[in-house]
Amino acid sequence: MDDSAHFHLRASRVEADSLTGRTAVVTGAGRGLGRAYAFALAAAGAHVIVNDVDEAAAHRVVDDIREARGQATAHIAAIGPLATAEQLVQTAVEHTGRLDIMVANAGVLRDRVVWKMTEEDFDLVVSTHLKGAWTCAKAAAEQFREQGDGGRVILVGSPAGQYGSFGQSNYSSAKAGVVGLTRTLSLELARFNITVNAIIPTALTEMTATIPAYSGWVKDVEAGRDLPPLARREHGLGSTMDVAPLVTWLTSDDAAGVSGQALGLGGDRIIVYAHPREEAIADRDGGWSQQDISDAWHRDLSRAMQPAGPPVKPSPENW
Q1: CB neighbours (10 Å) of residue 81?
Q2: Which of 11, 79, 233, 285 is the most buried (most CB within 10 A)?
């Protein structure tokens, strides 16, 4: 994929020097969206700790950031265990004396329908996405508390966690958990001036190219061609750099009062996702029998039943 635009940090849509003097960790930053977040944070002036399990990929990102006169340091490890998260934070402190921003982006996929998915498939995905988000947030929060001047935690969700996704019972469970984790941590850490938010990114990447309907748009992005409004608006899809300004904004002074939110960005579309709410309520003196529940369901409650799966969007094949 041609990512040359990533390497020109000042050309990205972020405010130069707005994060000067701050240190950011981005996990899973060797490629795709994580790499875009790392470049954008560096463009805004932060020293970025580039974590990835792929040593060569992490060092390429660091080299590209430095070539563009940004600041970056590589950290090679698979995310999940608490010890790894603590080492990652320690790397930041050793190089810059502090930590200000934690972006827990690392993830893996093991897509299979539930009757074909193995326990190992499930455990690996949940450990990386959900446990990894928790361990990175925990290690960062402890450092932020010690420093005493707040901090920013950004966890990464997915539309799969908001709506469900066929063949991704492991991934959608983990990503739904990330949003629940975000809400809880935002409550626990508010007193320490630490904000915690989830981003729900959508972008055309190598991963997206595996979806046949999107393969043409991925090729367009690779070639630097403009995407149609159907892609950028209705589907909320663009390049990885389209998502990056949400990360830099959430870490800026302007977003100091924003916490506990799930915010989506992709292409031309930004989304504020609702928290779960009670859609319908019924009360009955003395409690409920099975027949009472049936009667209430068919009379009043069924109208509030929620569909599973993402909203239906116009087909890319028609653009």
Answers
A1: 14
A2: 79
In this prediction, residues 33-59 reach a mean pLDDT of 97
Distance CA 155, CA 197 (A): 6
Catalytic site residue from 12, 127, 158, 239: 158
DSSP notation for 149-197: S-EEEEEE--HHHHH--TTBHHHHHHHHHHHHHHHHHHHHHGGGTEEEE
Structure confidence by residue, pLDDT tens digits, 106-159: 999 999 999 999 999 999 999 999 999 999 999 999 999 999 999 999 999 999
Q: What is the pLDDT of residues 63-100, one digit of tens each?
A: 999 999 999 999 999 999 999 999 999 999 999 999 99
Can you name the residues that pair with 74 across neighbouring β-strands? 50
Is residue 273 part of the annotated active site? The answer reads no
Contact yes or no for 49/67 (Cβ under 8 A) = no
* Residue 167 exposed, middle or buried by CB count within 10 Å (0-12, 13-18, 19+): middle
Q: How confident is the model at residue 15, as a pLDDT?
A: 83
Give the whole-angstrom CA distance, residue 182 versus residue 155. 7
Structure tokens at 74: 């590589």
Pairing of strands 23-26, 47-52: parallel
Active-site residue, from 37, 131, 169, 171: 171
CB 227 within 8 A of CB 221: yes
Is 18 tagged catalytic? no
Q: Tell me which of 175, 214, 252, 259 is the catalytic residue.
A: 175
Q: Could you give the strand order of the β-sheet that contains 151-156, starting from the edge strand earlier in sequence?
A: 71-76, 47-52, 23-26, 101-104, 151-156, 194-201, 262-266, 269-272
Domains recognised in the chain with CATH numbers: 4-203+239-272 (3.40.50.720)
